[in-house]
Amino acid sequence: MKINLGSGENLIKGYVNIDKRPIADIKKYVGKDNLAPEIHDVEEVIIHHAAEHFPNLIFWVNDLASCCINGCIWKITVPYLTWTLSLSNPYHVSPLFTERTFRFFDDIYKREQSKDFKLHILKTKFTYNYSLWGKHNQSEWEDMRLKYLNVVRQMYQEIKVIK
């Protein structure tokens, strides 16, 4: 099964679209409602600018992982922590995403609540704010990302679930 979690109105053909809105294939409030038993044997997950709207990060990560098969790939796009427009958005209940957020579910930081799985980050890509900062080489972008606000608009990660 492939799922589009927090689909909103962006329904993806070939995926089970899950959202709290009635337009979705399955109506669930991610972060509050359990995904199981309807969702199981998940092999791929797309979460595009929805995770920041899900309450209780630890709950939904654990809930989602419990529905996934070993080797499931999560493809997540979220606003980056230092993007101030995201921080000021009152509809973002979990606006604190960096390249390190999901590392807290791997072997190094794993807590008791995520003992049945770990997450391994395969890929991280940043979308830089060219209109504000102009053109720079990759090392300059990396340096600026760590020092200044509004350098990175969003972050994309591919994450593997290991059970």
Tell me about this structure.
This protein is of the alpha/beta class and 163 residues long. It has one domain (2-162): Rossmann fold (3-Layer(aba) Sandwich). It contains 4 helices and 7 strands, in the order ββββαβαβααβ. The protein has a 7-stranded mixed beta sheet with strand order 3-2-1-4-5-7-6. α1 (57-67) links the parallel β4 (42-48) and β5. It is globular.
Specify the structural class: alpha/beta
The profile of the biggest β sheet is:
7 strands, mixed
Care to count the β-strands?
7
What's the number of structural domains? 1
CATH top level assignment: Alpha Beta
Classify the helix fraction into a percent range. 10-25%
Output the number of helix runs: 4
The CATH superfamily bears the name: Vaccinia Virus protein VP39
Question: Secondary-structure element order, as H and E?
Answer: EEEEHEHEHHE
* CATH-assigned fold name: Rossmann fold
Q: Largest sheet, order of strands side by side?
A: 3-2-1-4-5-7-6
Indicate the overall shape: globular
Low-confidence stretches: none
